[in-house]
Design a protein that fits this description.
The chain has 46 helices and 26 strands. With 1482 residues, it is an alpha/beta fold. Strands 8-9-10-6-11-12 form a six-stranded mixed sheet, sandwiched between helices. A six-stranded mixed sheet has the order 20-23-24-17-25-26. It has a four-stranded mixed sheet with strand order 3-7-4-5, covered by helices on one side. The longest helix is centred in the first third of the chain and has 50 residues.
């Protein structure tokens, strides 16, 4: 059966013309004021190639308007498969033809590539706006220049000019051009707050980051200081704390100076003005005296509020600068490394997620620690002066709190360090889970991973509980200690027989309120200082990691490209400490996996030699092939030339720039074109040539938005072959001197491999130096020389013919390969292609499959225009993260309360706060009663007469007053302990419940969710958002609840003493609520933006770490660093605005709260004589306390709401994510021995990956008998991988059914189904842990069975030679094993499962020919009694199958034995074999 010809509908020309007219109109509209740019190109021979920058042109792919009846490759070049090494003229003629076609077609669109204006075909308007915004950072940024002159302080000093006219651009941060008024009052943010209230904030409303706060500027400054420190002290003696001090000392000293002024003002108010005002109330002094004390009290508080605003303004900017500097320096450090060594990606992401906040808190809040001691010393001196030596008893209570608080903080720090380690482990595990989620689902390993995460979370929660309880006790004690100190002071003073007046008592109480601020901040400050110290240590641990010492030198001979002179090279390897052995026993009992045991121990690094005494010289323009068995050192050989290893001895010389194609392609989350350009300028002609040479023309033509189609993280929407060819296209476009290709043909079939070898390796790179690692031995005769590696040594070196003549190991290997080919001369490698142009292999089930997004639902040749011509948005894969609007819904709070234990529990917890605060308030009320009672009209003898005493010590009920007052100490302490314990338990129950719910929901989501959601976004939920819910939400909420009750008690007291205050209270309450209701919206929106802005940064860090080798090879460190800086600045901007918005609200509420104290003072002034001084003092003391607490509480309510955005995000994930089918359906469980026979039946199966994508399987029907071995072939998008997707139910069927042994798999639980099937993926996946854990995570099999599986896959010797054998560590991504070794371990994993049905997805792609032939024998023997479905491009694999299934466009074209299909020369299969045959027998 002939393959169907391409039939383009007659409407094609009309639609294409319509499209061009539309573009033309848009060009005319856009080009009224500027000329439309033209695409220009030039040959490489021109000295100064003229190129068009990327932002000058956009190219969209449409079907060819002419010659549509032939594939592009056929219309341009015929018979490429017949190319030979001696036939360069054929290549040159074809090249000339292509050049001519390019020149002729550029204006109209080469090969269907329609040229449009730069912004005319972008994915969406948001992406365009974001690009333009990012460009503004370059315009605004300033470079750091070291200066010792005073002028460097000029930008900061300008803030003290009273009023400045803003000169900043509209989109720049206004704070840089604000004067003293705006700097203190934060009026520069008012317009944003109003906009938020009226319309809500959007991304474009936010100004870009201040040039002085930018990551690049501060990183350069911090890096210069760090380098000076290392130079002066050496690497071992360098102190990051010292550098941090140098970085911020000037701003810190200025901020602390202003802070001291606020402390003085806060001290002067109660000790002088309030004491004299209360004294005046009980005297007959003139009113003017009272007015003076009242004005003084109000003015001192006003000055305190204003100066405090200056402190925060300075501190906030200092904090964001150090935060940017530290993390920018960490990122730049990562850029200088080839791997993370003993760090995991999770640990690094956690550093960017959580330590960033702690570094900021360390700077902003840590220095306020000086307030506590300063106020305490001043308070002790004042009280001693006021009350005499007996007051020392109370002050002793006060001072003893400091060592207690210090001990608490040390304990908190210790617990924090332990918690961070466990959190790192959890985030690392989550990152690994997200990376390998498809394999985990297909193997039904969810329970193993879920139990690991659950166990880690249990340990984390246990530590969080301890830490939270300690902090809660500390927080509860802070406001009670001054009260207890006052009680002890007064009891001692009165007990000694001294009198206590109202003025004395309430000035002391008011002072203790000031001291209370010092106590409260002391707890936080010590905690933030300790946590900041831990975070800086974690930053330091990365800064001190060994960088690779550059060892590449330039050879003296200008004609030599590479020289290896007796070079021995090593890798950094992980080893384990031999401790914590007792955990192994606990493993089985508690469900801790070996990976968990290993994680804290994998910290030691050592060097392991892998390449030995290499001697090799490569001339410029030479093509060198490198071959050898699995683990021979081929990939290490490439890494050695890149400079990514450690040179132990000898020399390595390299001349020129390098391009690198890794064995596992590294793909960015960017458009297809951006992945190829990778920051290079766009040259149309060069770009089109690369597209064709790498056989990508039809792939791009089938994508919804052409080369603007977004490629997902790790190339999730590309097949393995497409990823590899994209990586090759990137290298080819880079136009470097030396090309290092690490097995680039492993993921493509033989015919596509032939095309790439001809057009790329022997064509485009014919004048380049190329080192070509391959297992495809048929290409070796065409290379200039061959290097045969064995166990890290060059075993043989020479031309192919000379090595064959030597008749050594290489000759035997080559002959074996050719005999295999000749014996199977009718075999087809992958047989996907039906045309001479060739197509890459099928979508890999495990690598994602492009068909997941409906990109390649049918062959490009068959695609009608209406199928390809789509809106630009169709090319967008990754969904934009939704920015929530409006209030936090009540359902979010309801969900949190229920997670905490329900309404009854929550109410009881709130009542413990009421009891705690109520007991302290009652102590003050009792003191007022006591002072009011005075001496109880007791008469005392004075001289010869008796008078009524004015000393309260003479009161007959003294004992009663003293007893009640003293017992209140026990009540206060008791309620503090109960409150702390209750609150800790409920909030951590809530956070743990939320974590478990969202984890289960995310993990049970279908694959489409993971394909369209960046891992950074999900990691954001499990790192930063969980940190918010674990630590920050409870901390904010606890303070908020405490202050609510304090305010209530204060207002009750003021209103009881001065009922006239009630009308004023109503007005003030309305004002407070009005301000809060308006401006909480802005604060909440800033917080939401800050939440969203973190995800791209985390994704970028993760992408960077995974692609370090490629980034370094291309020298793109600056490009990636620049992007990180911009992403970090975007986060810094909204983070800074969020904090400033909080302070904007605070200073206004403080000024309003000042009115409360002012009104109280004025009322006491007016009502002198009608209100007792003891009660007036009570009202004044609590009104003064109210001034600070009122604004803080309103601000806390807004902050609590803002922090609840994290709860809302988690809630949304929990409620909105769709779930897969249940893991187990008890009523539908299959027999324990199911499937017994392995019969598979597809009946009218229809499959689409998402509701809005077309069908990829279109009603296919076929049967597979028991024990049959089926080979599946067909071009890309024909639906091969979709068979596996349907079989494993990664996507539910749109119609039809799949039956295994007569059982409809759609009625089974997913775990029951997937655990009875096995898959060997194309991309080998290993997890952090041990070798044994990777093979048998459930510990179902004996060691003997594991060793047997390793022996059958030829890995036994390798594992047995490792120091820890089966317990040998496997690091992240299995990087301490070669790709081939990882693939063999994956095969051993499938052998262990020994299921009745096996799906092989190109499982031997990274294995040499000899090992592959052995593996094929193993598969035939070990899986003799099972049904096998094979998608593979090795020749012997497909032809050895019982039957061949040929798919096309989601339909079955042929299904018969290889013999019958080959007998019919017109069959599609026979034509595929014929097209590929010559390429195999070169």
């Amino acid at each position: 059966m002939d393959p169907p010809e391409n039939n383009i509908p007659s409407s094609h020309d009309e639609e294409t013309q319509e499209h061009r007219e539309t573009l033309s109109q848009s060009h005319q509209e856009d080009g009224e004021n500027e000329a439309v740019p033209l695409i220009e190109s030039c040959t490489q021979a021109e000295a100064g190639p003229k190129v068009i920058k990327e932002n000058a042109v956009r190219v969209a792919f449409l079907p060819p308007a002419e010659e549509a009846d032939l594939p592009v490759s056929e219309s341009l070049v015929q018979g490429d498969a017949s190319y030979s090494a001696d036939d360069n003229s054929s290549y040159n003629d074809d090249e000339a033809d292509i050049d001519q076609d390019i020149d002729d077609a550029l204006d109209e669109g080469y090969m269907g590539m329609e040229c449009t204006l730069e912004r005319g075909f972008s994915l969406n308007e948001a992406a365009i706006a974001r690009d333009l915004r990012y460009e503004r950072y370059d315009e605004v940024a300033v470079k750091y220049e070291k200066s010792h002159s005073f002028s460097k302080y000029q930008p900061s000093l300008k803030h003290f000019i009273p009023v400045r006219k803003s000169s900043a651009e509209r989109d720049e941060m206004p704070i840089d051009s604000t004067g003293l008024y705006g700097f203190v009052s934060y009026s520069w943010i008012t317009s944003l707050m109003w906009k938020a209230y009226k319309k809500g904030l959007k991304e474009e409303d936010v100004p870009i980051c201040s040039k002085y706060d930018m990551c690049d500027y501060n990183t350069d400054r911090f890096e210069a200081m760090w380098n000076e420190e290392v130079k002066r002290k050496g690497k071992d003696g360098a102190s990051l704390q010292r550098v941090v001090w140098r970085f911020l000392r000037t701003r810190l000293i200025v901020a602390l100076t202003f802070f001291m002024i606020t402390l003085i003002m806060g001290f002067v108010g109660p000790t002088i003005f309030m004491r004299f005002l209360i004294t005046w109330l009980s005297t007959d002094e003139p009113v003017t005296t009272g007015i003076i004390w009242t004005v003084g009290l109000i003015f001192s508080e006003f000055i305190r509020i204003i100066i405090f605003g200056v402190v925060w303004s300075i501190s906030y900017r200092t904090g964001v600068r150090l935060r940017a500097a530290c993390l920018g320096l960490v990122y730049k450090k990562l850029m200088r490394m080839s791997s993370l060594g003993n760090k995991s990606i999770g640990e690094v992401i956690n550093l960017f997620a959580n330590d960033a906040q702690r570094i900021y808190d360390f700077v902003v809040l840590g220095p306020l620690i000086i307030g506590g001691p300063v106020v305490a010393i001043g308070g002790v001196i004042y009280i001693l002066w006021l009350l005499g030596p007996w007051a020392l008893f109370g002050m002793l209570t006060f001072l003893l709190f400091y060592p207690f608080q210090y001990g608490i903080s040390r304990l908190t720090g210790y617990l924090r360090r332990r918690t961070v380690t466990v959190t790192d482990e959890r985030v690392r595990m989550m990152n690994e889970l997200l990376t390998c989620v498809k394999l985990i689902k297909m193997y039904a390993w969810e329970k193993s991973f879920a139990s690991s995460i659950t166990e880690i979370r249990k340990r984390e929660r246990h530590l969080l509980e301890k830490s939270a309880y300690v902090q809660s006790i500390s927080l509860a004690m802070a406001p009670t200690v001054p009260v207890i100190a006052a009680i002890v002071t007064f009891l001692a003073h009165i007990g000694a027989g001294y009198n206590l007046t109202a003025a004395q008592a309430w000035s002391v109480i008011a002072l203790t309120s000031s001291l209370q601020f010092g106590m409260s901040t002391l707890h936080y400050c010590i905690r933030f200082l300790i946590e900041g110290a831990i975070s800086t240590k974690r930053v330091l641990s990365i800064l001190l990691m060994d960088e690779l010492e550059p060892y590449l030198k330039t050879p003296q001979d200008p004609d030599t490209a590479v020289v290896l002179d007796q070079a021995t090279l090593a890798w950094d390897a992980v080893s384990s400490f031999k401790k914590k052995k007792n955990k192994k026993r606990r493993n089985k009992k508690d469900g801790i996996t070996p990976a968990d045991q290993l994680m804290p121990k994998v910290v030691d690094l050592k060097h392991i030699d892998v390449l030995f005494d290499l001697c090799l010289s490569i001339k410029k323009g030479e093509l060198i092939a490198v071959c050898g068995g699995v683990g021979a050192g081929k990939s290490s050989f490439i890494s050695a030339l890149l400079g990514h290893m450690r040179l132990q001895s000898g020399q390595v010389y390299l001349q020129g720039t390098c391009a690198y194609v890794g064995q596992q392609a590294w793909i960015m989350n960017a458009s297809f074109r951006e992945n190829i350009l990778m920051g290079e300028a766009f040259d149309a002609k060069r770009y089109y040539r690369v597209i064709y040479a790498c056989n990508l023309t039809q792939d791009v033509g089938a994508m919804p938005a052409g080369d603007f189609t977004e490629i997902g993280e790790r190339g999730i929407n590309l097949s393995g072959g497409q990823k590899q060819r994209l990586s090759l296209a990137r290298a080819l476009y880079a136009n470097r001197d030396i090309y290092l290709l690490d097995d680039p043909l492993s993921a493509v079939d033989a015919h596509v491999g032939s095309h790439i070898f001809q057009w790329v390796i022997k064509g485009a790179l014919r004048n380049k130096t190329t080192v070509f690692v391959t297992h495809q031995l048929q290409y070796l005769p065409l290379c200039d020389r061959v290097v045969y590696l064995r166990e890290g040594n060059i075993a043989e070196l020479g031309t192919h013919s000379s090595l064959v003549e030597d008749n050594k190991e290489y000759a035997g290997l080559y002959r074996t390969h050719m005999e295999t080919v000749e014996n199977k001369e009718k075999e087809s490698s992958k047989t996907e292609e039906t045309d001479a142009g060739g197509r890459q292999r099928q979508d890999s089930v495990i690598s994602g499959g492009s068909s997941i997004n409906g990109y390649q639902k049918n062959s490009p040749e068959k695609s009608p225009v209406k199928e390809v011509k789509k809106k630009p948005e169709d090319g967008q894969l990754i969904t934009e993260e939704k920015l929530e609007k409006g209030d936090i819904p009540l359902s979010t709070y309801n969900w949190y309360i229920k997670a905490a234990g329900g309404y009854i529990i929550s109410t009881l917890v709130i009542l413990t706060f009421a009891a705690n605060v109520g007991s302290t308030a009652f102590s003050s009320w009792w003191l007022s009663m006591w002072l009011s009672a005075g001496s109880g009209n007791t008469e005392v003898v004075v001289g010869n007469g008796t008078v009524i005493s004015d000393n309260i010590a003479d009161n007959p009920d003294l004992f009663m007053y003293q007893t009640v007052y003293g017992c209140l100490i026990l009540v206060i302490l008791g309620t503090s302990l109960i409150r702390g314990f209750a609150f800790m338990k409920t909030t951590l129950k809530a956070s743990s419940s939320m974590h478990d719910q969202v984890f289960v929901k995310v993990f049970r989501s279908p694959m489409s969710f993971f394909d369209t959601t960046p891992s950074g976004r999900i990691i954001n939920i499990f790192s930063r958002d969980m940190d918010e819910v674990d630590v920050r939400v409870p901390m904010t909420m606890e303070t908020f609840l405490q202050n609510i009750w304090l305010i209530t008690s204060s207002l009750v007291f003021v209103c009881l003493v001065f009922p006239h205050f009630l009308p004023f209270l109503v007005v003030l309450a309305i004002l407070f609520l009005f301000i809060r209701s308006i401006f909480r919206i802005g604060i909440r929106d800033f917080k939401r933006m800050e939440n969203v802005s973190r995800s791209p940064m985390y994704s970028h860090v993760s992408t960077t770490v995974n692609g370090l080798a490629t980034i370094n090879a291309y020298g793109k460190q600056e490009m990636f660093t620049k992007k990180f800086m911009v992403l970090f600045d975007e986060n810094t901007c909204v983070f800074f605005l969020f904090n400033c918005a909080m302070r904007w609200l605070a200073i206004r509420l403080d000024l309003l709260a000042l009115l409360v104290m002012s009104i109280t003072a004025i009322l006491s002034l007016i009502l002198r004589g009608s209100v007792e001084a003891s009660f007036a003092g009570l009202a004044l003391a609590y009104a003064a306390q109210l001034s600070g607490i009122f604004q803080y509480t309103v601000r806390l309510s807004t902050e609590t709401e803002a922090r609840f955005t994290s709860v809302q995000r988690i809630s949304n994930y929990t409620k909105c994510l769709a779930s897969e089918a249940p893991a187990i359906i008890e009523s539908k469980r299959p027999d324990s021995n199911w499937p017994k026979y392995g019969r598979i039946s597809y009946r009218n199966v229809q499959l689409k990956y998402r509701p809005d994508t077309p069908l990829v399987l279109k009603g296919i029907t076929f049967d597979i008998d028991s024990l049959e071995k089926i080979g599946v072939v067909g071009r890309t998008g024909s639906g091969k991988s979709s068979l596996g997707v349907a079989l494993f139910r990664l996507v539910e069927l749109a119609g039809g059914s799949v039956r295994i042994d007569g059982v409809d798999i759609s009625v089974l639980g997913l775990e029951d189904l997937r655990s009875r099937l096995s898959i060997i993926p194309q991309d080998p996946v290993l997890f952090i842990g041990t070798v044994r854990y990777n093979l048998d995570p459930f510990e179902k099999y004996t060691d003997e069975a594991v060793w047997s599986a390793l022996e059958q896959t030829y890995m036994k010797e390798k594992i047995a030679n490792l120091p820890l054998k089966l317990n040998a560590p496997v690091i992240e991504n299995g990087e301490n094993f070669s790709v081939g070794e990882r693939q063999l371990m994956c095969m051993a994993r499938a052998l262990l499962r020994n299921n009745k049905i096996l799906f092989l997805d190109e499982a031997t792609a990274a294995i040499d020919t000899e090992t592959d032939s052995k593996i094929q024998r193993t598969l035939q023997e070990a899986f003799k009694a099972c049904t096998m479905i094979t998608i593979a491009h090795r020749l012997n694999t497909v032809m050895a199958c019982s039957r061949i299934l040929v798919l096309d466009d989601g339909k079955v074209v042929e299904f018969d034995t290889p013999r019958n299909l080959m007998a019919n020369s017109h069959s599609a299969f026979a034509k595929m074999v014929e097209a590929a045959e010559s390429s195999l027998l070169l």
